[in-house]
Design a protein that fits this description.
The protein has one domain (19-206). By secondary structure, the chain is mostly helical. The termini are far apart. Helix content is 73%, strand content 0%. The chain has 7 helices and no strands. The protein has helices at residues 19-46, 49-71, 76-107, 113-134, 142-171, 175-206, 233-242.
């Protein structure tokens, strides 16, 4: 995961105004916002940690798409700042999900496998649609790459949620659900760190280059090039009158 987009060359510091990019972001924003509502309700009803973790991921992605729409068409420095904010938010979200997963493991609640499976499949279809739309935009600057990374992680996470539903149904325990929630949190932490690294590289590239000012030339006090300091005219007149 971490090797794909951080090692490439940074994008040039040019403004990007892509109508197709904006249209794809609006579609992805609507899909992710709708799936957040579906998964958070289903996660609470089914007592599923993985569904709740995936719902929070949908919420984070919807916010990321909204930020990307706000900075689309701006210069590289502003797009890199937006990517940095998204990377930090994704990293913090992953850490929060890890803590929540630990709490769910200690509670020992058995989630509803049927609800997990149905909602997991619906979320998988939604994320495959988003990933397909964003595939042609996966290159470029850190902001575009961050959107692609989030969609890719979501598709992987939904496959894991469906697998967890089968695991809960087959074993009669909640540990498959807990394991998938931990995997989703790990994807969030890894993706956030990846985005932060790329954004920092682009911020360094887009920083203005300050030209060094030439050093001050000080003439020697003696010699033919020595400058003569003339006294003010009033002072010269005063000294001549005294003499």
């Amino acid at each position: 995961m971490a090797g794909g987009c951080c090692g490439g060359c940074a994008a040039p510091d040019t403004k990007v105004d892509d109508r197709a990019w904006r249209r794809v972001l609006w579609i992805a924003l609507a899909i992710n916002a709708g799936m957040f509502g579906v998964e958070i309700v289903a996660g609470v009803a089914a007592h599923s940690a993985s569904l709740k973790a995936d719902a929070l991921d949908f919420l984070g992605d919807a916010a990321n798409y909204a930020i990307s729409l706000g900075v689309a068409g701006m210069a590289l420095r502003w797009r890199a700042r937006a990517a940095l904010a998204k990377g930090v938010s994704l990293l913090l979200l992953g850490l929060w999900v890890l803590g929540y997963t630990v709490w769910m493991a200690t509670a020992g609640t058995l989630p509803g496998a049927e609800t997990m499976g149905i909602v997991g499949v619906a979320a998988l279809v939604a994320n495959f649609v988003c990933a397909a739309l964003l595939w042609r935009h996966r290159g470029g600057d850190a902001n575009r790459q961050s959107v692609w990374i989030c969609s890719r992680n979501d598709a992987i996470g939904n496959i894991a949620v469906v697998g967890a539903a089968f695991g809960v149904f087959g074993t009669g325990t909640g540990w498959p659900d807990i394991a998938v929630a931990a995997i989703l949190a790990g994807l969030g932490v890894s993706g956030g760190w990846q985005i932060i690294g790329k954004a920092r590289a682009e911020l360094a590239q887009s920083a203005p280059n300050l030209k060094r000012m030439p050093p001050l030339m000080v003439r020697p006090s003696n010699g033919p090039q020595a400058s003569t300091v003339h006294a003010p005219s009033g002072a010269r007149r005063g000294s001549s009158s005294e003499s």
